[in-house]
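Lab channel / #folding
Pinned by the channel admin:
"Please post every new chain as: sequence first, then the structure tokens as a reply. Keep commentary short and put observations after the output so the thread stays searchable."

First post following the new format, from NK:
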Amino acid sequence: MEECETKPIVNTGLRGVTVASTRISDVKGEEGKLIYRGYRVQDLAASATFEEVVHLLLREKLPDKTELAAMRKQLADERPIPAEVVSALKTRPADSLPMDILQAAVPMLANHDPDIRDSSREAFDRMAVRLVAKLATVLAAWGRIRQGKEPIEPDPDLGQGANFLYTLFGETPDEELARFFDICLLLHAEHSFNASTFSARQIASTRAHIYAAVAGAIGSLSGELHGGANVRVMEMLLDIDDPGNVESYVKKILDEGKKIMGLGHAVYKTDDPRAHIISPMSKKMGERTGQTKWCEISRKLEKVGKEEFKKRKKIDIFVNVDFYSASLYYTMGIPVDFFSPVFAIARVAGWAAHVLEEQFAEAAPKPMLYRPASEYVGDYCGPEECAFVPIDERK
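Reply from TO:
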């Protein structure tokens, strides 16, 4: 009898492996499409608000006028954060990583949630809205506290995006600026089974509460290969500094075998549709603030980077959402180390929707605990078992 050949396990990061079904979103990588519950993200960005998308993700439908008014009121009512959380933030070192601050605040918010011990669908929905509302307030509060300033109370008459800018900067944004930021929140709200969403669903599969799942998701998002990518894009733009330096920079980076941040994606095989929505906003914000060079550098970098990559690798590479969101946030005045947390205050809507789906979907009312397999390849003794040696006899 011939022995079966053992094929080595390839660490693919689960790429191409379907682990669950979802009704929340679809990323059509080959076509460059992103769909939220049946709606193209381009259509939502053109006509909807972030609050409408929150309703769509959590309640599974676009709201009518009455439902939207109710969602806006619920978000407005839930934006203030407990005084105890503000006091705790004031004890943190000013140089703390903002993503760590945001992640640490989540369990503190859980401590003050009246629904934390209620495992019903209705309670989870209320907690989901609270997280969407309060996480943005926490981040804005930290932005002021670390500068020695007092946090600003949210304005119930402003929407989610405008409120964040107001509570961060202390000035009510004009309509165009508020709309640009609202679109950014909308575009980052959901993206199927990315690393942070998978983390949230995996935690939710244990029947942990929604705060635990979101805290884990924030930890996942903090990595430079996920939510931290736009930070590295801005660092790259600052390093280039002038459109005239783009060509030499691209050649140098590729000669060293490094990546051009913002080009390439794990799923899209064409340009990320969100990048084409953000690019003109970046250009407009540059014109508004007299900082046109950042968008100019980005656009030239996209062109030269694609051409040089094609020339060397004989394959195409495509722009992703981080490429232009970096220059847009920078010209809005958002601190570079806040780029990833801003991602989080948008994506929390998608995380919450996935937690709700994981725990309450009709097809699987009780979650299947995520428990992937692995191949043990051994270590000190190789693949075989080790013979135990008493401590006095070990060398």
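NK: Residues 25-228+336-360 form a domain with the Citrate Synthase; domain 1 fold (CATH 1.10.580.10).
TO: also worth noting, Residues 294 and 300 are 10 Å apart (CA to CA).
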